[in-house]
Design brief:
about 220 residues, four-stranded parallel beta sheet, about 10% strand
Length: about 220
């Protein structure tokens, strides 16, 4: 039997070291000979991850143990995550999830068949529940992101999400100084710059906010 760890973070999260430490501490506290910890800094939406692929396809063998800190470190798509759990089970690999006590119980020496089946059923139910929670969390996050983007669009701030700005602010400021000097009207400048009414007055508002000494 060989013991391995796996930990995944998204590229924006900073929990990689903490997850590795938790796995190591658990193994040390339970006198388990940890061979290696495989890590990916990648989204949990799917399993197209280089280190995870190596771990499952080239490293794990029947009788091995795979330790993860939380189920969402394995994946956040319920269907795919449960598919990977079944894959590990079919390989004869024991999955231990530190946040799930039922997965930490060694049932291999249980003599009572009925008790074993009950514990296995409970364990599988808990895994499915936590997989559902992981997916619900990412769906909620994505919903908040969509709502935030929609609000940005309503406020005319969609450029923050990567769309090229209608005009460079320095260029607008230089051009708008002509309006302040009375050389052109706002409408004339707007047409000259090729800006929509909404966009022009949004840039105008930003200009006046940066220059409070100029009366509106």
């Amino acid at each position: 039997m060989a013991v391995y760890g796996y930990h995944r973070t998204s590229t924006k999260e900073q929990h990689l070291d903490r997850g590795i430490q938790e796995i190591r501490q658990y193994c040390e506290g339970h006198e388990m000979d940890l061979k290696n910890i495989f890590t990916d800094q990648q989204t949990g939406k799917n399993f197209n991850r280089s280190r995870y692929t190596v771990l499952v396809e080239d490293v794990l063998r029947p009788g091995d143990v795979l330790i993860i800190t939380e189920l969402d470190r394995l994946g956040r798509n319920k269907k795919d995550t449960m598919g990977q759990i079944r894959r590990l089970q079919e390989m004869g690999v024991r999955l231990m999830v530190l946040e799930l006590p039922t997965t930490l119980m060694d049932m291999s020496n249980m003599d009572n068949t009925m008790a074993y089946l009950m514990m296995e059923t409970i364990n599988n139910m808990m895994l499915e529940l936590y997989a559902s929670m992981a997916q619900a969390e990412i769906e909620k996050k994505e919903k908040r992101q969509r709502e935030g983007i929609a609000m940005k669009k309503l406020r005319g701030e969609w450029e923050d999400y990567g769309r090229p700005a209608a005009i460079d602010e320095d260029k607008f400021d230089a051009a708008f100084s002509q309006v302040i000097a009375g050389e052109v009207t706002p409408t004339e400048l707007r047409k000259k710059l090729g800006l929509s009414h909404t966009t022009f007055y949004r840039y105008r508002r930003k200009y006046l906010d940066r220059h409070p000494e100029i009366p509106e």
